[in-house]
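Dear Dr. V.,

Thank you for agreeing to look over these. As mentioned in my earlier message, I'm a first-year student in the group and I'm still getting used to reading structure tokens, so any feedback on how I've presented them would be very welcome. I ran two proteins. I've put each sequence directly above its structure. The first is here:
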Amino acid sequence: MLKMFHDAPAAGGSVAFWEQAWRDGDYTESARFCDSDPLRPLLDRHARPDSVMLEGGCGRGAYVARHSGRGVRAVGVDFAVAALADVRQRYPTLLLGAADVSRLPIRARAVATYYSGGVVEHFEAGPHDAIAEARRVLHPTGVLLISVPYYSPLRRLMVVFHRHEWRRTTDHQAEAPPPGRVFFQYAYRPAEFDQILTEQGFLVLDHQGYSVLWGLYELPLVGRILGRTAQRPRHPPTMATGGRAANLPLPDTSLLKRLVVGEDDSVPILGWFVRVLRWMAANMMMYVCTPAGAAPS
């Protein structure tokens, strides 16, 4: 796996970092992005009306708002208390709570769908406690949808160019960061994260890479070209921030939006390129899991 550092004043797993990240963002853009999110079909399939969906690390609450509007009993928790207070002012009817995803104030087996989008990789001690807690609150026939950064073939090639901020590692432990940087996140190869999920009592059913444009930003030339047409946001792109592709000035055509923003791999011929780019350069990998021993639905 890959350990990644950044030059922000706070570590990626800290409350201070996320309070600032959500404060800098655009709530309207976050909500708008949900409609074109590459994960939308997957989430819509598993978060069913009248079932209980929990989002661990809900940030601005965009997913909670969207799925509540679909008739899902959606609940969001986050440890960024100030951000939650802001969301409550904007959306007073949403079910939101302040909590650590490693210690949820939710009874066992109460949740049908647990969504965690780009959260557990930010804990330097590892994601194990948060995943074990997800296993505890999930119903035996429920589904866990959890995404973490993908240690892609592109990132493997780019390690040498990021040697001052990326380190290969085989375990989760605190260590002295490079000068001027603090810990941000881990990126995993699918086999590595599959093993962690299996150890915590899950059966992995499927994977889906997504957020290709953000992954391509790590190529210096591509980053400069894209940077001329869209400002790369400072806040993390692992939530519904609108920063992955929605801020590119694309012509208003459904095909381009399906391919570039929605990463729709069902488009004839062109969808094959989407799948190749997901494998090669996706920023994130989504894992679809059920509790081990449950019958896949």
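The second protein is here, in the same arrangement:
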Amino acid sequence: MITKASETFITVGRLFFAVALIAWGIQHLVSGEFVTRVVPSWPGWMPARKFWAYLVGAILIAAGVAIILRIKARFAAVTFGVMAFLSFVLLHLPLAARDILLGGKWTGARKALVMCGGAMCIAVSLTEEERDAPSRLLASARVRDGVVIFGRLCLGGFLILGGIQHFIFVAFVVSLVPKWIPGAVFWAYFAGVALIAGGIGIIVPQVTRLAALLSGAMILSWVFLVHIPRALSDLHNPGEMAAVFEALAFSGVAFLLAGLVARRQKALTSRK
């Protein structure tokens, strides 16, 4: 039962992640602009900005389709992971370094890092499924474990940062709570505590699986409660639609991590 559930979470996590990539890619091709904070708008001095926006869009779509269809999926996941990491280092960090109040620039930087970690975990999940011999599994176990730890640190750190921001920018968070839900201030603080607890739990090995599942479910609920209504109310703002798929992707990364941790625990138990 645990094995079947873990594989289901891995599959769902990969699907959510891939759908987000495809959606962002389509937005890039339709608008000719950089619409997601994972790959922010390139500096104004760079030539042929539309060309690069279209190219990034095509890469995002190709990577998402490859992951869903399992055609060169590991290569696609690693390629996007490297792209997200370069985006973090070269584009986000210079901006975040000037954001001393832990504002939106740090949010964008950590989102790029979460997507990098998630992509690498997808590559690991596919490598495990397609192994041919136990010796290969043992030889690469340390590398796989390291990648999953990296993914946990990326997502856990992002959730902790997001939780802290809920307390720093509470007025903005309150504005995100749907009007029909009473007690907006309470829910803003509650969500901040939940994010911090989830982030810490994902980092702590003993409770990673539970924390990842609960965090993934929480973020997925925000897709429907917060992000989709905001996107539908402001159809001319591509950032709101991009945020829908950001939340979907991060929920997918959480489910993916939960499944990978359960799979690893099962493998260790079977060897005893």
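From my reading of the second output: The mean pLDDT is 88. The chain has one domain: 2-128+137-267. Does that match how you would interpret it?

Kind regards,
E.
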